Amino acid sequence: ARHVSPNFITEIIDSDLSAGRYKKVVTRFPPEPNGYLHIGHAKAICLNFGIALDYEGQCNLRFDDTNPEKENYEFVNSIRQDVEWLGFKPAQVLFASDYFEKYYECAIQLIKDGNAYVDSVSDEEMRQLRGNLETPGTPSPYRDRSVEENLDLLARMRAGEFPEGAHVLRGKIDLGSPNMKLRDPVLYRILHSAHYHVGEGWHIYPLYDFAHPLEDFIEGISHSICTLEFENNRAIYDWLLDSLKGKCGFPENPRPHQYENARLVLDNTVLSKRKLIIMAERRYLDGWNKPFEAPVISGWSDPRMPTISGIRRRGVRPEAIREFIRRVGVSKTNSRVDLSTLDAAIRDDLNFISPRVMAVLKPLKVVIDNLPENHLEELDAPYWPHDVPNEGSRKLPFTREIYIDQDDFMEEAAPGFQRLTLGGKARLRYAYNITCEAIVKDDDGNIIELLCSYDPESKDGPRGVKGVIHWVSAEKAVPAEFRAYDRLFTVANPDAEEGDFTDYLNPDSLKVFKGFVEPSVLQDSKDTRYQFERVGYYWQDPEDSTAEGLVFNRIVTLKDSFAE
Ligand code: ATP
Ligand code: MG
Ligand code: MG
Hints:
alpha/beta, 7-stranded mixed sheet, 24% helix, elongated
């Protein structure tokens, strides 16, 4: 089966291959290591690596690290881990910063060809001279510097002779273009910063529109896939590569081409590293600095975060993410995706691999009066429902004292309530029918215990009892903490609301319960995903759960709870 369903990009690739324009399909995934990857990146990863697999080509993991102020190895390492976890193996792992010398060589070539110049106007002046959609741009007084002067200035910029902002290198393209990006874009700026990967030594750093096309050309990329916001940048991409093909060691033919597709935008969360870093590190990348009160996010890998590492820690499998991305598809128009689409893909994956066991999150003690003190019966309980074609069962200890969930008992039945009531009957899953004979309350009137009787003849069937409830043995169950995660934001699109996006963080995005799980889980490997019957899909938190203190994360609810 193909990794990527046919779409407008694969059609282009098919026609490129049949026309012989490329011998091999080469793609890349080019993250900037300035944060952890999020589920939007998963779309780009599945697309680029998936295409390489489908066409027996190759896909590089390239760190687009041309911005020394925001990047580091923590981010590099997390990105490598996330790509691998998603199930893809890069043909090569590359750093754009390793091409700095090559960019410089290209800049010299552009100057020599009259395609670039050093400009020395202020930022403000440059903005004004650039004009707008109604007015064409006006040439800077420095636009016609000689090749010699431009080469001299660029060399001295590189050597660190000038303060930041004194000069920039600009492409000499078209000041009258209706595409504002083509009005002499800045290619290089002065920056006196060390770089996490290449260290000291550079005082000029390339901008995206200069660096990115060259990265693709250097690596022999055939199809360079990006998101729709870069549509207007494509003209610079083409201009630059057409200016340099056959020069600086580049082939005349073929050269890479850029194709844009929709960004993944997911409801009830934010997918922007600039915003995620604020929640993960309380760090502000853009100087924006508004303190906020918020439920504490523990970091990049908090299970509520839309990061790959957060989703992984929550318990989602890579199979589910890949299936979700497949369902979203590849398109030329932006749209928002509902969280229920993601949750459905997660459930569809977990359904077939998650044994059904029982856990009680809000325990209410039940004493079964007609059982002796030390009664211990081992009941046989299947792990799987009839519609899942897996085999296997475990033993469930049935004892005089058990726990049921507080929500499964009402002193007096409300309309439609079919579970246990005072004087009423309910069935214990895989066990017997019980009848509630009496209630024990504390001094404040809270129900703390139920006194019940069981029907020893009811083991083989419900016999007229409608409500089936889950339970665990009070003596044999294992205490555990349960963390139920909910959507991170209370509104679908926090960016579209008034005020700051952090104002819309969901204060109930984490609920913690102290309850009990049946003892069979102690025999399983730690990474087992379970369906706790009637409760949700859970697994042990990989960081906080220990043999002495089990901690379970809710991966996803059993049903779509977003329908409200
Ligand atoms: P962010 O806004 O989160 O910083 P970015 O695009 O600046 O995103 P990069 O590290 O440059 O982050 O992204 C690497 C690749 O992932 C790019 O090719 C980019 O197009 C793609 N990508 C990033 N976010 C999304 C998204 N939400 N949907 C699809 N592709 C995405
Ligand atoms: Mg980017
Ligand atoms: Mg960004």
